[in-house]
Amino acid sequence: MSFLAWHTAELPPISPLPSGLDPRQLPVKIDFLSDLGPNPSEEAYASALVHGRSIHLPYIHPRTHSIPAGNITFYSHHPRLLALFTHVASHAASSLAIPISKVIMLPTERSLWTVIRAPFAYKKSQENFERKTHKRMIKAWDADPEVIDRWVKYLEKHAMGGVGIRVTKWERLPIGIGKTRLARVKEAFKAPIPNGVSSVDAKLLEVQQEGDSDANRKQAIQALGEKILKEELQTFKGSQKPPAASLGASGNTLATERVHVSADKPQVKGSPKIHAKGNNKTSSTSTSKTKASPSYNSNSSAKAETVTPAKAEQSTSASAPGKT
Amino acid sequence: MGLRPNIRVLRDMKARQGVLDNEVTRRAYLFVLNTFGRYTRPTTVKNRCYESGRGRGIMSEFGLCRYQFRHLGNTVCSRKYSTLPLTAMNIDTFVITKA
User: Fold this and answer.
1) Of A25, A114, A270, B36, which has the maximum CB count within 10 A?
2) What is the pTM of this model?
3) Interchain proximity A251–B23, CB inside 8 Å
């Protein structure tokens, strides 16, 4: 009411009605829209002659089922802009006969920054700045999703600078949607397969036909790596390093290189032996063993080898003092 | 000496085997990476104040160093400092205030 009083003070007086009009046929002149009663009809609300018509709240359509259709949240750093834009949005929804809520005031978010006043040093004197984000929300019920879309499109077209919109919409699927979707998927599985190709082979064919598949990439990288190794080995030939054998699938050349660099790693040293020993052991046991297990067995055997000479040494050393 | 090696020993064995198997591909990837120049690496990017060029104390949201941000808050964004009236065109500048 103070809002209305503020406006009436500035507006010029209303000119008298033109002659020839029957006062009994004219819309009802009232002071405040609340004088219409608790639940006025839309016709009564729209035809009521009240001062400052555009400033008043729009006609709020009664909810038919109270089923949420969507929410619109408005964000701004300036509350005046929000007041104007929410007014426009609520009037637009009322024109589309969407049952809406009144404009809901959500809590204001405040971001703070504390900054040293001086350009260099003097940490103890600082200054605080803040930025407030004001939020409003309008809830909508019962309307069709198309109507809500129309409302949102209108707001986006006439969007206001300094006000952000966030739309949350709910759409409903018919009852029994799970069954129908499952039936459709089953039908797709039963569809006829192309001639002479099983489903798995078809997939593999598709993958191979793609130029950029993982297998192709891997092969390309492998080829590049081998090329680099060849070049490096050639450069090594120029220096005093020993010549290396050609690349094999098992990568034995790398093992032999490392032997020259550091000879104190028992596993790598005995690698040819390990493979042989591992094979002997696994032939007796099941064939479904993984790659790791032969190395485990072979390493234990290698360790046994290394351990026994040490033991022998110890025994000899023990015997030596015993003797003396 | 143990008949059942330590889990850490097993992990180390796995690591050594993995290095052996993947050295070739790893060398290839590294070669490819080294062919790119210095200014292709995202680590060479550094935020700087667009007003003063300061490298430290930058606030990414404004692109300014702390002193320039303070200057902005006290002058451009302050209604007391600005002589122009508040209109729809300049309302977006008055976003930060002194707290």
Assistant:
1) A270
2) 0.58
3) yes
